[in-house]
Amino acid sequence: MKESRDGRRGDTGDFSFDALFGNLVNELLPSFKEETDSLDAQSVGGNEGLPNGTMRLPSDATRSSQALLTPLFPEVDALLSLFKDSCRELVDLRQQIDGRLYNLKKDVSSQNSKHCKTLAELEKGVDSLFDSFARLDSRISSVGQTAAKIGDHLQSADAQRETASQTIDLIKYLMEFNSSPGDLMELSPLFSDDSRVAEAASIAQKLRSFAEEDIGRQGINVTSATGNATASRGLEVAVANLQDYCNELENRLLARFDAASQKRELSAMSECAKILSQVMNADTRLVLGDQGVQTSPNNVARGLSALYKEITDTVRKEAATIMAVFPSPNDVMAILVQRVLEQRVTAVLDKLLVKPSLVNLPPMEEGGLLLYLRMLAVAYEKTQDLARELRAVGCGDLDVEGLSESLFSVHKDEYPEHEQASLRQLYKAKMEELHAESLQASESGTIGRSKGSSIASSHQQISVTVVTEFVRWNEEAISRCTLFSSQPATLASNVKAVFTCLLDQVSQYITDGLERARDSLTEAAALRERFVLGTSVSRRVAAAAASAAEAAAAAGESSFRSFMVAVQRCASSVAIVQQKHHSQYFANSISRLLLPVDGAHAASCEEMATAMSSAEAAAYKGLQQCIETVMAEVERLLSAEQKATDYKSPEDGMAPDHRPTNACTRVVAYLSRVLEAAFTALEGLNKQAFLTELGNRLHKGLVNHWQKFTFNPSGGLRLKRDITEYGEFVRSFNAPSVDEKFELLGIMANVFIVAPESLSTLFEGTPSIRKDAQRFIQLREDYKSAKLAAKLSSLWPSSS
Fold first, then answer.
1. Cross-strand partners of 55
2. Three-state DSSP class for 91?
3. Which terms does the UniProt entry file under GO BP (predicted)?
4. Orientation of helix 539-577 relative to helix 488-530, angle to 10°
5. Three-state DSSP class for 586?
6. Which of 255, 277, 381, 691 has its CA 20 to 30 A from that of 595?
């Protein structure tokens, strides 16, 4: 077979179907292949073999006879019968398998239905079990809640019972103290038992607090009822007896403390110190009130007044006894007053005044540093009043004012630093508040607002009210400086430092406000630059750009007005601090305190000028931007509205138009509208300088603009009318140099009206403008045809 294939590959282009069929038969029927081989062997001598393994007979007759003698497929019948038997067996097997499959499907379906039924029953059982568990859990929870409520009720009832029992005891003790004035002999054994001193002190302080609170309420709600008057008098007796008892208890504790100190009994000394602190804490509660309540300077002032009045009354009562008993009453009074100040007053001040750290400032939500400074001022003032009262009662040779002053030495050492830190903290909090308000306003006001107005209004404006608040903070700080500083030099130093804080705050605030207003001018300028197009654009693009340019112009005008408002408010704010406003803060308050010290007033004036220099620089830059904004819009209007025919009208025999051109009318109307804000906001030299600069820029811009056109005589008359209109407007600037420039422009416009031969005599009286006039002459329609260049070079050789 391989040989035949090789032979077939070698015989290029010769294909035989017989050879192909023979190869297939040889491969499938080996028996036929053997018979064929034997036949080939017998006839090998007389036949010619082919490369594909078949034999070529010598002739057609011989091939026919050979086919008749030997069948081509002798085993076909046997194979057909075998195939038929196989098919029958396969059909039988398929039927058997189909029957078995049917039976299996039937069994599976039956088992599946049983399984589903079992699962459904199990699910029902599980659901009922879950329901049972849920009911059980709910029942357990209900029982637990009921038990908790019962426990709460029992606890509350027990607490109420305990409170009621304590209240009954307190009422009984209060009735004992309320029996008669000065009678402490009929009190319960509790108040005389040395082993129960701590309990007695605690009860006495509770009774004293209740009685004083009730007297305070009676003093506020005074009525004419007899019962109220009686109750008030009864509680006053109780308060007096309780105060006497506390004094007696304090003496007993001090005696016990001295005895324990001599014996070195530390535990007894500690116990006495704890009880004494309880007695002294009553004074603190009287001043500060209940814990957890926000302490205010007014409340502290009332509490200190009440406490110091009680101390004064007690010292006065003791003074009467001392005067009658001791041979040297002044010495004893000095010791008594010193003891009162060093013990009772110091204990109260230590609780009241906690010196804050300058590194970690107390938050503004808790009052910040300002609350501490106000409390310090109240305590200092009230303590000084107490010292004067005690001096009037009598304290011997004791320097009671110096002693009371020493109580505040630790606070006065760093007072200037705390005052300046407080002002900075207030400023920071105010700026955060204003920033939050600005963000909220910008978020709520953005909808429905045009682009031009949104640029100007999205920036926070300077507020004179805010600067007034800065000054009010400073005035309060200066009042504290006056209170704490007794020496003129110290006072001047502190006042100067505090006033410098005000200058820094005002300078930073108005400078930031001006910079924000300048940002709006910068944004408007960016909008203008965005819509500057070339000449080769489509009509649709040009229309869209013109519309966008109108919006940019509106933004520029709005920003101009906003900046002028900022400048006006800046000037008002500076005037508040300086001497030009009705408050005259510096002139009336600061100068008076600085004058006693040589050079302090001059130094503050210099610092004031230095602080305002940054605001002046921002204002100057902003005003320059305002001029740029105005001139950009003027140039846009001139470019959009000015037509070539305005100054070169056809000579059709019609009368010349003596009205201003549309571009001139639009520019003057725009300038009149936008400069209203400048006339209102600016004043004095600032106004004069701004308008002079704007007038010079306007003159230059108009001259450059007219250089783009060609003029005939009628156009020259129209130009002269425009110049007159511009000149009349700029007269409102009150700038003589600007008026002169526009007058010269009117003279130069005559070059377009006169005949060529009259040009030589036109500027005989004003030779200084010949060079500018020659530039105008070049714009004449007949400049080339009349050969004016040659004529002018011969007439004015120096100008050529």
1. 49
2. helix
3. exocytosis; Golgi to plasma membrane transport
4. 170
5. helix
6. 381
